[in-house]
User: Fold this.
Amino acid sequence: MNKEREDLEAVKRNLERQIREVEDEMDIQRNELTIGFEEAMRKREHEYRIQADEMSTKVLAHELKVIIDTLTFIVLLTVRDKCFKP
Assistant:
């Protein structure tokens, strides 16, 4: 009876050790996945910021062009009015 109990205890300890090893491996894999996910998210956020900055730059360039064109038009109107004033 003692031998059977000792065998069962040994099996139990072995199974508990295996469970701890598997849990440790799962923790390692979970950490690796988390790190990979965070890196992927940082990369996507960076790419998004770059695209947003590029679009903002284009919008500002267009706004400046409109301002320049408007000022040019005003100058031309002024010159025309001065040249052709009766």
Notes: The mean pLDDT is 95.
